[in-house]
Amino acid sequence: MRATQAALNEQPAEGPDLQRPSCDPCLTIGEFYFSQPVWKRAMAVPLIYFPIATTIPFTVGGNVLLRASLALAGARSRRSIMDYLPAWVSHRYTMETQIVMDSRFQWSPFTALELLKGTRAFWIFNCKMYCPASVALFRHTTHLLEESHKPKPKKSRLGGLLQRAAVAAMTPTNKMGNFLVRRHLGMMGAQNLDEVNRYAIETDSDETVDPMKSEALKLIGSTTKLIEIVEAWWCPFNHEAKESYARIDHSAWGVIPREKAKLHPDDRDNPQWENGQPIVDTRTGKAQHA
Fold it and tell me: 16 with 206: CB under 8 angstroms?
C-alpha cells in the first residue's frame, strides 16, 4: 500500500486547468517570517478558519445556483468539483504516517495552538481536507462563472435570475474571506500580496472570458490563489494537484531547520515552495541554515 501511494506521489498532475504555474510572481513570505512577532503569527492562525462560516457556505450555495442556471439555459458544466479535488490516496501522508511539528508545551495564550501543531489530526484536517477541498471548490466556482459567460443554447429568465443571485450571494462573502486570508498571510510575513490579483487574472482567464469585466470572477480567482498560497505555506506535502498551485519562496516547515529535516526529500527540495536558499532572520541578519 505504501509503495502504491509513493508511486502515486510521483505522478504528474492531471485534470482540468492544472498547468504548472509560472514563477512570476513568487510570493515572498518565508523571507520575512522571522520579522513578525510571535504573538502576531499566532493571532493570524484563527483567521484562516473564519471563512468556514463566513465564506464557504455562500460559495457552495452560489455553486449550486450557477449549475442550476446553466441547466435552465440548456448548458451543462463539463466538470464537477471532483475534477479539481486531488485523489485521497495521492496525498503524501496518512493518519499513521503524518509528520507533525514539535510541540513545546508552555503556559501562554498560544498553548492550544502549540498542542494542536503536535497532533496528526490537525495536519490531516488542514492539509488533506480543508485546504485541498477549498481550492477545489473555488476552482470549480471559477469554472462555472466562466461557463455562465459563454453563449447558451437558449435564453432563460429564471436562469439569469439565479446567476445574479449567485453572484450577489458570493461577492460580499468572498470579499470578507479574501480579506481574512490576506490578513493571515500578511501577519505571517507575506510582502507582495498585491501581485495575487494580477496573477489570478493572467492564469485563470481564457479566450472566451475577460475576467476584468466580472468582479465576481476576479474575486473568486484571487481568493483561489490565496488559498493555494495558504496550503503551499502550511502544507508542503505533495498530492496530484499540487504542481498547479501558486508558488512561494518558502513553507512554514522550511523556515525552521528542525522541521524542514522532517520533510520527505521530494518535498524538502521542491522549488515550488522551497527555493533552496537559506532563510535570513531579518532581526539579526544571520542566515537560518537548514
Answer: no
**What residue has cell string 472570458?**
209
* pLDDT at residue 104 in the model: 65
pLDDT band, residue 173 (cuts 50/70/90) = very high
Helix, strand, or coil here: 9?
helix
Whether the per-residue pLDDT at 251 is higher than 60: the answer is: yes
Q: How far apart are CA 246 and CA 192, in angstroms?
A: 13
Q: Which residue has the cell 494542536?
A: 116
Q: What is the pLDDT of residue 203?
A: 43
Which residues, in sequence order, are bridge partners of residue 287? 280
For the chain, the farthest-separated pair of C-alpha atoms sits apart, in whole angstroms, at: 65
Task: Name the nearest CA neighbour of 18 among 203, 211, 148.
Answer: 203
- 156 φ/ψ angles, rounded to the nearest 5 degrees: -140, 115
Written as nine digits, the cell of 2 is: 505504501
Mean pLDDT (the chain) is 79
Q: Which amino acid is at 25?
A: P
Q: Which residue has the cell 498530492?
A: 239
Which amino acid would we find at residue 127? C
pLDDT value for 196: 66
94 Cβ neighbours under 8 A, 6+ residues apart: 5, 124
Q: How many CB atoms lie within 10 A of CB 149?
A: 15
> Torsion angle of alpha carbons 104, 106, 109, 110, nearest 10°?
10
Single out the residue of 93, 84, 106, 112 nearest to residue 245, CA to CA.
Answer: 84
DSSP 21: P
> Residue 85 pLDDT > 90, yes or no?
yes
* 226, 212 Cβ separation under 8 angstroms: no
Do you know the residue count of the chain? Answer: 290
- Burial label for 289, CB within 10 Å (0-12, 13-18, 19+), is exposed
